[in-house]
Structures are given as structure tokens and as C-alpha cells.
Amino acid sequence: MKKILSLTTIFAICGTFLFAQNAIDLKVQLDNASGKISSHMWGIFFEDINMGADGGIYAELVKNRSFEFNHPMMAWKRLENVPEGTFLIVNDSRRKGNPRSLKIHKATDIKAGLQNEGFRGMGVRKGEGYEFSLMYRQASPDMRIKVELLNENDNVIGTAELPLSEGANWQTGSVVFTSAETSPKAKLNIWFQGAGNAEVDMLSLFPQDTWKGRPKGLRKDMVQILADMEPDFIRFPGGCIVEGRDLATRFQWKKTVGPIEERELIINRWNTEFNHRLTPDYFQTFGLGFYEYFLLSEDIGAEPVPILNCGMACQFNTGEVVPLDELDEYIQDALDLIEFANGNINTPWGKLRADMGHPEPFHLKMLGVGNENWGPQYIERLAAFQQVLKEKHPEIQIIASSGTDPEGERFDYLDQKLREMNIDIIDEHYYRPPAWFLSGADRYDDYDRNGPKIFAGEYASHTTRPNGPGRSTWEAALSEAAFLTGLERNGDIVTMASYAPLFGHVDGWQWSPDLIWVDNLHVYGTPSYHVQKLYSLYKGTDIIPIQRDGQNVTGQDSLYASAVYDAEAKELIIKFVNYNDQPVVANFQLDTKKKIKGDATKITLANENLNVANSLEEPLKIQPQTVQVNYKGKTINDTFLPYSFTVIKISVQ
């Protein structure tokens, strides 16, 4: 819910800081639009880092449910001392993608059970239902299962029993029970009662209350905070996991579709990437696979933007490349992905999509080839992709990497080569301190309007790195708000932008800052989240020049501004950043023959302490404050708080 403040309250906040000063005059050329804003301007970058997928948005509560981690019993603990051979890990190579299972042998009805610790515990809520399920087979119907949900004090807060039927073939069973308490660090006991022999696999626990109520689906609050942004696109699955530490552990989309029990788990490349944040229990189960990514994009009205491996592993790790004469497999993966997304149901991959529940196409329009790759080895592999894709699918726009940095020798080389190739979209990344963002608001003002479009694919202002949860500060967010005025002003050439990384789990992060932080039960947006959300919600359709003394407002006196017009809503939207420790009075002269309706909405993010941040304890310490105001005639005269980002929306008739 928006908090409505009166103008009196706003001025009271300023208190004694308001001082007499000359107003800043800015000219808004409402009748002289300089271009069109991209229809997919503001979006989301998703990567399974910081427990973003497993242990995060993918709502599975059991870790290592199929015993496929490098250590098969990781996350599991035996509950009783049982005879040797009671529990055995079986590796059956005939089982596609999931060869391991757990065999239980009990000659007599001894007490035997396992406990799963979950992903830094299991977040469960009082009164909500949870579905326990498994795959199993047993020769005689003698064994049954009892499950217990325990809170952090080892008290039972939910229980259920599930008989196991006789049968030599694998079958599934499930039972639903309710949690009697809310617990952020619950765990699950599984007791095997009775005597006999049985094999079990895919031991799973999901909340019933998932996003859109889909069984074994996504965590609802984490999807909702994304949907609230109204993003134009979702880029997936990353990120460096696309490349892998080596080619053997690269992301292969075909292994992430089809029946979940057949999807081949791999180690997450962030498992051992940082010595200061080792996470040996971090794997990718691909319950969140390419089908689910496409479905999520559709659910929240976002364009799907998948990124594929180009035949290169991460150049910060092994830097492996596949020989050019063996690149066909990688290019075929791209062709098959387009068929999976857009093909009719009579094609092999279109049929798989339909069999998974989506006969209609996903309307894929853009495809990334490579992530943060660089050098001539990247260009020659990209060229091979481009030749085939443009021949067979000219309707698909290709996104190409400009490397890891926004300047320097690597960037200059790639920028030149990609322009010579006439690539569709160049993906630029910038992780830089606030000063870089503040000084770069004019970065795209002089870019070639006839060349490739730009995707600001990964951006984030770093005050320090690595730091801890909650340190996505107002200083960082405000510098991003200033920089984004330049992206918006150049929304005809910069067609996409997304912060990165997206999610961080407070108990399982490797990289920070991040846009959104979670624990097992809660989620909150950082100040950076609120900044990009305001840009996304108030995007407009046309770029409106806004100038001071005939120049774009790109940091003169630490002020930044951009403006757009929304042709559908018939509204002028002004974005203004005051990066000063004093309030600023500004006059916006609206140069237009249109009639201006005085009633307007003013939305402000502000705090005089640049080091302040949101947290689990204070998730809304920085949040938008909205007031209704009335301006007279064709001049917007207003006072803007110290260290503030303001959006003004005014009706135009």
C-alpha cells in the first residue's frame, strides 16, 4: 500500500534544511519527442546464485532429494543406529538423468529413519499445507512411511503417514499435512516403518501455497515481488552458470526439460567460486528449468530472454573452448531451443513443450549467445552462430557479449567487432562504484543511432564488495537512479536494462549487493529495487528532451533528469535526482501546445543518510512516498529533498 503524505509533511521533513535559493530552470520539450522508448526497456536478470533457485524461488524444501550430490547423503542424517546395510545407495545407470536411489533393507521392524536439514532449514508457516512425495518400489506391501516436521527446537509441528504399495516398477506416492507452527528453520524426519525391502527416490516436500497454486511450483512471495516490478523481460539462466567452470559443467538447457525426475543435476559453479563464501552443498537440480523459466516470463508479462553457451567455458576459470569444427552441437542447441519455444506441436521440440502442458508457443524473439565472453575466440564462435541463426531464423534478435567491463582494451575490441558484424544487441555489463555511475549519465548520448542496440544486461553500484546482506545502500541506489536517467534519455538505443544479481539469501549468499534479499520466510527489496521499479512502472512511450541551459541534465550541480511521455495514458513523466545534501528548488517549463492538467502525482525516494539500507528488520526503511500535488499552468515549481529521486506524473490533454 502506498503511504500518502501531505505537502505539509514533506516540508516538515525538510525542516530547517529548506533555505532561500535561486530556482533551477529546466525546459521540457513535450512537443518535440526525440525517440521511442523500447517496449522491453526494464527487466530482470535471473541467475541461480546466492541460492536464487534451489533454496530460493524454487519452493522445494528438501535438499539433495534424489541423492545425486557428490556426497549422496549430504543434507541427510541417520536417526537411529541401524545394522550395516540397512541403507544403501544404489546407482542404476539405466535410469535417465537420475541413477541413484536409496535402498532400505529391514529384516525386522527396527526403528530406522532419516532427517533432512533443508536449505539452511525449511521455512514453514502455521496453518499451511505441505505435500510430501516420493518415488518408490518394493516387492511386498510391508513398509510404510511416517513423516514429521520439526521446528528449530526439535518439537514435532506436523506429521503424516503414507503406506507404500507393492510393485516391482517405480511408482509415486504423496500425502498432505499441515504445519501447526511457523518456523524459519524446520527440518523433516522420514521414518521407514515395518519390515521388508524398498527403494526410494525424489523425497520431496513442497508448500501447497505456491505461485498460481501450481503443484511443486515456485515460492509465491519471491515471484510476487518480481511481478510487482512489471518487468518487460526476464534474462535467464544467467550469468556465469551459462559458461560453467569447464564445458562439462556448462548449462545445457535440454537437460532441464521433460520429467523432473529425469533432469540431470549438476554442481552449481558458485559452489566453490569464492574462498570466503564456500558453499559445498550448492547444486542445480533443475526443478526450475527452461520450461519453468518460459512459464514464469509468461506469468508476469515479460519477454523471455534465454542465454546459451557459445562453446566457451568461463574465462576466469578454465577458459576451455570447443573446437570450431565441433561447434555444430552448440548451434543445434540454439536451433532446437527456438523450436521448443516457438515451434508447432508437430515438431519434436514443440511437441515436448506441448507434452509439458503448453501447446501454445512462448513467442521467443531474442536469444543471447555467450555470457561475458571476450577475445577473438569468442568472435569466431559467435560468427558461426550468427550465420546459421540469421539464415534459419532471421526473426530472432541475437544478443552478444561485450565482455566483463564497460571500458578498456577488451571492451573496445569487442565493441568494434560486434558493430562490424552488425550484431542486433550488444550486452554491456558494469559493476562499478557510485562515482562511476554518477559520471556516466551521458554515456549513451553520443552512441551511434544506426548501429546495434544496447542491453545494460548487468548493472550494480558497489560501495564495497563483497559485503553482507542489507548493504545495498541508498548511496548505491541513488547513483543508479542518476545513471538510469541517461539510459531512459537514450531509450531508443539502450533497449534493455537489468540489475544483477537478482536474489540473495541471507544465509546462503556468495555475491553482494543484490536487488532482493530473502530468508526462508521473508523477502524485501533493496533501495536499488525501488529505483528500478519506479523506472519500470513509469516507463512511458516517447523520450522527451529535458534540458538546463540547452544541455542534457547529466550531473551539473549534482542534478540529473530525464522525461518521457506515455501516449496511452496521456501523461508526462519526469524523473529528477538531487544528489546534494541540501534541498533544491526547480522550475520545469513545459514547452507544449497541449493542455496541462494541474493535478499530478509525486513519488519520492529520499534519505539524508547515504549509508542507510533496508533489512529484514526494517524492510521498508527506504520506500517510495507518494503525494498528490497541483501545479499551475505550464510550469512545475517544486522543492526536491536532499539525496532524493523523484518521479512526477502529470496529465496532459
What features would you highlight for this structure?
653 residues; alpha/beta; Immunoglobulin-like; TIM Barrel; 8-stranded mixed sheet; 10 helices; 37 strands; globular; signal; hydrolase; non-reducing end alpha-L-arabinofuranosidase; glycoprotein; ASD1_cat
List strands and helices in order, with pairings:
Blueprint (H helix, E strand, L loop, with lengths): L2 E2 L2 H8 L9 E5 L6 E2 L7 E2 L30 E3 L8 E5 L8 E7 L6 E4 L5 E3 L4 E10 L5 E7 L5 E8 L3 E12 L4 E11 L2 E12 L12 H8 L5 E4 L29 E2 L15 E2 L5 H10 L3 E6 L19 H15 L5 H8 L10 E4 L6 H17 L4 E5 L7 H12 L4 E8 L1 H6 L13 E9 L12 H16 L4 E6 L3 E3 L10 E3 L4 E3 L1 H11 L4 E3 L1 E3 L2 E2 L6 E8 L4 E8 L5 E7 L5 E11 L18 E6 L4 E6 L3 E9 L1
Parallel strand pairs: 1-35, 2-33, 4-16, 16-19, 19-20, 20-21, 21-22, 22-23, 23-24, 25-26
Antiparallel strand pairs: 2-29, 3-28, 5-8, 6-7, 7-15, 8-14, 9-14, 10-13, 10-15, 11-12, 11-14, 17-18, 26-27, 28-31, 29-30, 31-32, 32-37, 33-36, 34-35, 34-37
Helix pairs in contact: 4-5, 9-10
At a glance:
The protein is α/β, with parallel strands linked by helices and 653 residues long. The protein folds into three domains: 3-37 and 543-652, Immunoglobulin-like (Sandwich), CATH 2.60.40; 44-59 and 211-539, TIM Barrel; 76-207, Jelly Rolls (Sandwich), CATH 2.60.120. The protein is built from ten helices and 37 strands.
